[in-house]
Amino acid sequence: MSNKLRIVLPQWQGGMNPNYRLGAKLLNALVPESNQTETLEIPISKEEHQTNGIVDEEKNLLNQMKTTFDTLTIKNPDKVITLGGDCSISEAPFDYLHGKYPNDFGMIWLDAHPDISNPTTSSHIHEMVVANLIHKGAKNFNEQVKNPIDPKKVLFAGLKYNDLRPMDNLVKDLNMSYVTPEELKKDSSPVLDWIKNNNIKHIAIHLDLDVLDPDDFRAILPAEIGLDRSKFGAAIGAMKLAEMVRLLEDVENNTDLVGLSIAEHMPWDDINLHNGLSKLAIFD
User: Fold this and answer.
1) Which of 242, 154, 149 is nearest to 195 (CA)?
2) Which of 55, 206, 209, 259 makes the best surface tag, with the fewest CB within 10 Å?
3) Which pLDDT value is given to residue 1?
4) Strands laid side by side in the 177-179 sheet
5) Straight-line distance from the first to the last Cα atom of the chain, in angstroms, rounded to the nearest whole number
6) In whole angstroms, how far apart are CA 92 and each of 96, 98, 141, 181, 278?
C-alpha cells in the first residue's frame, strides 16, 4: 500500500488573489477523503510584498515553497495530493516527486494556459511555474528546484494553443508537446499515446480548474458574475467537467499517478457570501 500525503496549500501570492485562500479550504472539503491519507495544511502568510520585479518573491513564496518541500522530504510520501491555491502550488510537490521517481517520470499540465513565462514578461509566479520546473523561469525559483524536469517529459493538455500570448512562446521555442481541448472531446488517446511514446510510468498531473468551460463549471475565475469575457485578457478554458474526469481516470488506469494538484478554485457564491458577512462586527 502506497504512503500518501494530502497537502492543503492556500498559496495565493503567486496569482495575487487572496480569494484563492478560501478556494483551497473549500476544495479540501469537496475532494474525497480517505482514512488512509494524512492531511496537512501548510501555513501561508496573509501579506504581500514585491521584490526584484516579482511579486512576493523572497518574503513569502520562496519560504512557503521551501516549507512544502521540506515537509514532503520529512514525511516521504509515495504519492502527493495538493489542494490550492494558485498554480504555483505544484512547484514544490512536483520537484519532490521527480526526485523520488527520477526515471520514467512525466508531468501533465492540464490547463488552458502553459504557465511558462519568466520575469521579462510577467511578475506573477503562477505564470512561471512550469518554466521554474524546467529551469527556464525566475532565477531564485530555478535555483530552489532541485530536480528539474526535461521539457520533453511535459505535456500541456487542454491548452488553448491558438490563444498563446508572447509570454507563452517558450512552448513553441522548445517544441513542447500539447493537446488541445478539441482533440480530447472524443477520447483520451492523444494523452495516452504521449505517455506510451515517452515511456512514462510515474505521472504527476497539475489540474488548473481554469481548463474548464465556465458555462459548464462555474467555480473558476472567468465565471465571475457580470464579467465581460471578451475583456478577460487570457485564454478561457473549453473542456467539459465530464471530459476532464474521463481524462484523469484514463491516465490513472494507464500509469502510476503519483501526484495530483488541483489549483485555482474560485467558488464565487461562497466568496461573495464570505466577504459580505465579513462586514458584520459580530464576526470580529
Assistant:
1) 154
2) 55
3) 54
4) 38-41, 4-9, 79-84, 256-263, 202-208, 105-110, 154-157, 177-179
5) 45
6) 6, 10, 10, 27, 32
The pTM score is 0.96
CA 229 to chain centre: 22
Please give the Cα distance from 239 to 18 (Å, whole number): 26
User: How far is C-alpha 45 from the chain's CA centre?
Assistant: 19
Q: How many CA atoms lie within 13 A of 183 on its CB side?
A: 15
